[in-house]
């Protein structure tokens, strides 16, 4: 295992969840505790830039929730200035009297200072300067991972993608085992935020047995993300092997009560325990054993308990719920050539009219291969014949190849004529 990671203390990713909570009108129950947690952090760490980012009357993202106090901001800013002067003095002295390691250490303190107080641009700039001065590959990876966390904190998906690519190149050029595994978690969470659940499932599930990246999320949250990504994307065999039978998943998913609606923000997604994971357990078991009534109930609970409240999952909530319904419908229809609308509605615990409307969202786009016969009250599946599909693909690719060859032949003939 490699050495302990550097620059891993800041930013505190839990604060990003509190910020998300304050921005959601449907989570007003949790606003007071999120408000207290943020103000406490701002006071404790003198986070003037973060305070301005949140509360400024014109530039702040939650000015209606966190009250702006100009004198308080000036006081925090003065503390930042004094602390920064000490770091600048230490850096100058290191440049004059000490060696490269002391200079790098001083630069690292300054970069961590900007990350701690919540100034994204200055922190990234300081980390870039530190990266150029750092010789060790392991330390360089730690710096890039710190930059990724900063960009995740401020929801800069483009910046995260660029730095994950950079970290991947560094890891391939000489990263140790621990940093390789930490990068899996970072990459999986990023893929989750851009709604690439299929690609996210593999690094997230792989990271479960070797997880050490507690600076980015608690282990129980990683299990949540890995299970959701795997449930919505893996085929039945891989789902059974990597999710249902996973020792890491089984160790977290237990029959625990769902958090009460009047709980604190710490009951929200700061759940280092496994509160509320009973619904997740029911969800994955129900989809596998085809218990569709309990699946729909568990899906509603998972939406309320996790999808609506988590900053990484919330924007994908509607898509995830819709995709899980489509997956369940497809799984049932694969077993029948013709199925009664009433029987299928009973299986899912919904009305025939509701099922008809919901299926109609998937059939026109070929997400479900079936047709609805309301006159006879049945659903007919029309699974495409595999051989015919393969034949159509061969014809399609063959036509494309012939077109390219014809264009190439014309170009060759023209070139020959010019020579003549």
TrEMBL record:
Subunit structure, interactors included: The 26S proteasome is composed of a core protease, known as the 20S proteasome, capped at one or both ends by the 19S regulatory complex (RC). The RC is composed of at least 18 different subunits in two subcomplexes, the base and the lid, which form the portions proximal and distal to the 20S proteolytic core, respectively. Component of the lid subcomplex of the 19S RC.
Residues making up the signal peptide according to the UniProt record: none
InterPro entries named among the record's database cross-references: PCI_dom, Rpn7/CSN1, Rpn7_N, RPN7_PSMD6_C, WH_DNA-bd_sf
Pfam families, sorted: PCI, RPN7, RPN7_PSMD6_C
Residue ranges constituting the PCI domain according to the UniProt record: 196-386
Species of the source: Ascodesmis nigricans
One GO-annotated biological process of the protein: proteasome-mediated ubiquitin-dependent protein catabolic process
GO cellular-component term (any): proteasome regulatory particle, lid subcomplex
SMART domains xrefs: PINT
Keywords: Coiled coil, Proteasome
Coiled-coil regions listed in the entry: 73-104
Name by which UniProt lists this protein: PCI-domain-containing protein
PROSITE patterns linked: PCI
Chain's role: Component of the 19S cap proteasome complex which acts as a regulatory subunit of the 26S proteasome, involved in the ATP-dependent degradation of ubiquitinated proteins.
Keyword Metal-binding: no
């Amino acid at each position: 295992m490699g050495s302990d990671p550097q620059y891993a203390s800041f930013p505190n990713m839990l604060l990003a969840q509190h910020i998300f909570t304050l921005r959601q009108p449907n989570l007003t129950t949790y606003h007071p505790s999120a408000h207290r947690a943020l103000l406490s952090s701002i006071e404790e760490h003198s986070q003037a830039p973060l305070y301005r980012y949140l509360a400024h009357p014109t530039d702040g993202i939650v000015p209606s929730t966190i009250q702006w106090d100009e004198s308080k901001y000036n006081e925090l800013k003065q503390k930042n200035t004094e602390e920064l002067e000490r770091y600048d003095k230490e850096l100058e002295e290191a440049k004059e009297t000490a060696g490269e390691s002391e200079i790098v250490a001083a630069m690292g303190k300054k970069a961590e200072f900007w990350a701690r107080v919540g100034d994204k641009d200055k922190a990234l700039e300081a980390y870039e300067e530190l990266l150029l001065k750092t010789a060790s590959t392991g330390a360089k990876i730690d710096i890039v991972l710190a930059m990724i966390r900063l960009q995740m904190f401020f929801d800069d998906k483009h910046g995260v993608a660029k730095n994950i690519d950079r970290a991947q190149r560094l890891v391939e050029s000489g990263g140790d085992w621990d940093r390789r595994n930490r990068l899996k978690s970072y990459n999986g969470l990023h893929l989750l935020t851009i709604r690439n659940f299929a690609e996210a499932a593999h690094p997230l599930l792989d990271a479960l047995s070797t997880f050490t990246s507690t600076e980015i999320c608690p282990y129980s949250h990683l299990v949540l993300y890995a299970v959701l990504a795997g449930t919505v994307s893996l085929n039945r065999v891989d789902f059974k092997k990597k999710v249902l039978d996973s020792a890491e998943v089984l160790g977290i998913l237990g029959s625990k009560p769902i958090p009460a609606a009047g709980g604190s923000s710490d009951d929200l997604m700061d759940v280092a325990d496994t509160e509320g994971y009973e619904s997740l357990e029911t969800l994955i078991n129900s989809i596998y054993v085809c218990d569709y009534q309990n699946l729909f109930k568990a899906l509603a609970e998972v939406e309320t308990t996790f999808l609506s409240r988590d900053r990484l999952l919330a924007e994908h909530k509607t898509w995830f719920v819709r995709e899980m319904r489509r997956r369940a419908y497809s799984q049932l229809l694969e077993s029948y050539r013709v199925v009664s609308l009433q029987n299928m509605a009973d299986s899912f615990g919904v009305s025939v009219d509701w099922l008809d409307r919901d299926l109609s969202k998937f059939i026109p786009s070929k997400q479900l291969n079936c047709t609805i016969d309301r006159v006879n009250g049945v659903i007919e599946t029309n699974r495409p014949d595999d051989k015919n599909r393969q034949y159509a693909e061969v014809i399609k690719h063959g036509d494309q190849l012939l077109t390219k060859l014809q264009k190439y032949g014309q170009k060759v003939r023209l070139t020959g004529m010019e020579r003549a």
